[in-house]
């Protein structure tokens, strides 16, 4: 009886594993092909599109590094994404903290205001936004992008973080108050470290679309020295449409930072995703 | 050194009056236990004292100084919570030293104090662990250690042992009593547990619906409760209550007829507190029943459950008047479910309550 049951569950397990492995292959295969193609010459790509490269030399990457603007785009994207994520996490944590840990007049209005931001696509407001940023002198300026991204990401960030902050026991706060900690100190030293998985989730969740965004830089950035990756790559596509190896190498470089961050933080990310599941 | 006075303290949450008015004095070095049914305001009273809630009205003084406007950390008290409330991302050492670090105490002094507290509580080898890697009892000790390190004038405990298993609870109970003797601090302790209240307290405060019903030494409350609520709350198993009517009165006793026509003559100093015909309640503690009372009054009934433990026997009776009655008898008694029994009690050792629930003395 029991062995039958166990067998059944181990069969379930095998099926689930097969499904997950299949899923992983489907997801990873294109990325792997992109990365591998970055090591191939143009000829190799056409003769053996799905094979391994003949050697892992970095010629294509060297071309990108020395002959194109991709490094500058990478740096610009890193600056814009980095500061956006930093600001949205700091502001999002403070807003979520006020909404979840204190009771005050108007808190419901404010949280509804944030929620409404979740439903409103910012792109619809592009014309007033453009006029406003122009008036503030923030067009063709990475600060403008950072401001837009921070504002755009706050609703989702506040939404994610309030959920986590609400789940922390009030006695921790009380205990810290008796220990003499100020409200700011309680937030920074006691409560925020406990939601680090949520910060990682909110950070990655927002960083990916910001890193990949094409729309806002296209509209707000004209000077080549402030172009971001997504925008810069289109130009690069035109220039290197005959050299696919270099193209793939460029794409690989563009995807790399986010992949690295994700891998580095994956344990926290998963901990956050399953936080509700295990008590 | 801490002498606490709470003067007509009131607390309202919105429209809900949780503490309608409580006055209380706690002497230096006293161990005071708050007991009362769930939701009666024990934690609220403790939190008011700690400064975690604001008073609606009234005053709190510690050593003659008004403290109700001070922030929690400046009242010189420490609190141990039921859930321990240890900071999960800090090691035991960091947990215990947090308050001192917030207060910018010199490093060497912090280290010395933590070491001393850890020694008292046998936590030295766990100082570098996170709370997650500790057992329930160890976490409890860290929570206490965190309080000790601050050298508070007053320790507040809110049901600190209720998450521990029975054996550990006994052990920690003794530890806390020892600690009280060693630190010579005032301690206020909230509990649901009768044994904790009776054994640890210098003074028990019985609360009901935010009101103080009675306070006093544990055995005074047990032997001489002011009213029916305290009588029913202190003691385990709880006191048995029987409805009756006063049928006669002289200047030293009341005669009460229970609903099964048993007559009980209750000696008292102030029989004038009740009149003939009044509905009164007789309270008999389970341990005041016995089997060989001669001509003493008796409760008769059918046994519906028996617990024979060898050294003592618990009987559960359905009395002929319909009262469920618990009997705690010393020694072993051969009684079986379904037996009809009569248990005697000595009227002089019982309690009689007037229609308002006050004890007739
Ligand atoms: N923040 C609050 N807002 C509204 N009502 C509250 C609040 N805190 C407590 N109460 C109410 O006050 C009453 C007393 O609560 P309290 O926590 O002091 O009870 P307690 O005696 O500690 O109970 P327990 O033994 O279950 O811990 C309860 O009825 C509770 O619902
Ligand atoms: Mg409580």
UniProtKB/TrEMBL annotation, chain A:
Membrane-spanning parts: 14-36, 73-99, 111-131, 143-165, 186-208, 242-264
Alphabetical list of CDD domains matching this protein: TM_PBP2
ABC transmembrane type-1 domain span: 74-265
Lineage start: Bacteria, Pseudomonadati, Pseudomonadota, Alphaproteobacteria, Rhodobacterales
Organism: Sinisalibacter aestuarii
Superkingdom as given in the UniProt entry: Bacteria
Pfam family, one: BPD_transp_1
Keyword hit for Coiled coil: no
Family the entry assigns: Belongs to the binding-protein-dependent transport system permease family.
Protein name: Sugar ABC transporter permease
Membrane protein topology class: Multi-pass membrane protein
Keyword annotations of the record: Cell membrane, Membrane, Transmembrane, Transmembrane helix, Transport
UniProtKB/TrEMBL annotation, chain B:
A single GO molecular function term of this UniProt record: ATP binding
Highest taxon of source: Bacteria
Membrane-crossing segments per the record: none
Protein keywords: ATP-binding, Nucleotide-binding, Transport
Record-linked SMART domains: AAA (SM00382)
Keyword tRNA-binding: no
SUPFAM superfamilies xrefs: MOP-like, P-loop containing nucleoside triphosphate hydrolases
Listed name of the protein: Sugar ABC transporter ATP-binding protein
Origin organism lineage: Bacteria, Pseudomonadati, Pseudomonadota, Alphaproteobacteria, Rhodobacterales
């Amino acid at each position: 009886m029991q062995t039958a049951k166990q067998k059944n569950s181990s069969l379930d397990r095998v099926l689930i594993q097969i499904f997950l492995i299949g899923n992983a292959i489907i997801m990873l295969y294109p990325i792997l092909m992109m990365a591998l193609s970055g090591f191939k010459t143009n000829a190799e790509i056409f003769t053996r599109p799905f094979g391994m490269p003949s050697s892992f030399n970095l010629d294509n990457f060297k071309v990108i590094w020395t002959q194109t603007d991709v490094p500058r785009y990478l740096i610009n994207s890193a600056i814009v994404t980095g500061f956006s994520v930093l600001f949205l996490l700091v502001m999002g944590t403070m807003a979520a903290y006020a909404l979840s840990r204190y009771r005050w007049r108007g808190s419901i209005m404010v949280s509804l205001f944030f929620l409404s931001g979740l439903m409103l696509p910012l792109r619809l407001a592009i014309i007033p936004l453009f006029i406003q940023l122009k008036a503030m002198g923030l067009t063709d300026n990475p600060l403008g992008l950072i401001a837009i991204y921070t504002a755009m990401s706050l609703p989702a960030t506040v939404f994610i973080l309030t959920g986590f902050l609400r789940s922390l026991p009030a006695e921790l706060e009380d205990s810290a108050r008796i220990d003499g900690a100020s409200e700011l100190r309680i937030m920074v030293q006691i409560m925020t470290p406990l939601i680090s998985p949520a910060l990682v989730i909110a950070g990655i969740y927002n960083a990916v679309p910001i890193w990949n965004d094409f729309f806002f830089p296209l509209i707000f950035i004209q000077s080549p020295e402030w172009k971001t990756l997504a925008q810069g790559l289109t130009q690069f596509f035109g220039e290197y449409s005959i050299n696919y190896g270099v193209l793939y190498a460029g794409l690989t470089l563009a995807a790399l930072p986010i992949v690295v961050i994700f891998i580095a933080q994956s344990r926290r990310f998963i901990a956050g995703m399953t936080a509700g599941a295990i008590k | 050194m801490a002498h606490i006075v709470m003067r007509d303290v009131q607390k309202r949450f919105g429209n809900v009056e949780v503490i309608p008015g409580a006055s209380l004095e706690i002497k230096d070095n006293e161990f005071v236990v708050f007991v009362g049914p769930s939701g009666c305001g024990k934690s609220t009273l403790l939190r008011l004292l700690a400064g975690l809630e604001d008073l609606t009205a009234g005053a709190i003084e510690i050593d003659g100084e008004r403290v109700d406007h001070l922030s929690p950390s400046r009242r010189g008290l420490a609190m141990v919570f039921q859930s321990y409330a240890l900071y999960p991302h800090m090691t035991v050492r960091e947990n215990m030293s947090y308050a001192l670090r917030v207060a910018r105490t010199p490093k060497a002094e912090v280290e010395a104090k933590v070491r001393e507290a850890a020694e008292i509580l046998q936590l030295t080898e766990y100082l570098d662990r996170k709370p997650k890697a500790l057992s329930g009892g160890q976490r409890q000790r860290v929570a206490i250690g965190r309080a000790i390190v601050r050298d508070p004038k007053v320790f507040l405990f809110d049901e600190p042992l209720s998450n521990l298993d029975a054996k550990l609870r006994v052990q920690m109970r003794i530890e806390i009593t020892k600690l009280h003797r060693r630190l010579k601090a005032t301690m206020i302790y909230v509990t649901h547990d009768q044994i904790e209240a009776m054994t640890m307290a210098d003074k028990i405060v019985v609360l009901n619906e935010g009101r103080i019903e009675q306070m006093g030494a544990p055995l005074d409350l047990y032997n001489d409760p002011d009213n029916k609520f305290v009588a029913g709350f202190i003691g385990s198993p709880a006191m048995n209550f029987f409805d009756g009517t006063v049928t006669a009165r002289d200047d030293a006793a009341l005669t009460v007829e229970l609903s099964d026509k048993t007559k009980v003559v209750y000696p008292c100093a102030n029989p004038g507190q009740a009149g003939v015909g009044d509905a009164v309640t007789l309270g008999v503690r389970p341990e005041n029943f016995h089997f060989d009372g001669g001509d003493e009054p008796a409760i008769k009934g059918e046994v519906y459950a028996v617990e024979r433990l060898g050294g003592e026997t618990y009987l559960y009776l359905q009395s002929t008047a319909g009262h469920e009655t618990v009997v705690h008898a010393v020694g072993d008694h051969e009684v079986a479910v379904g037996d009809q029994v009569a248990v005697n009690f000595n009227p002089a050792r019982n309690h009689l309550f007037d229609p308002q629930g006050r004890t007739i003395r």
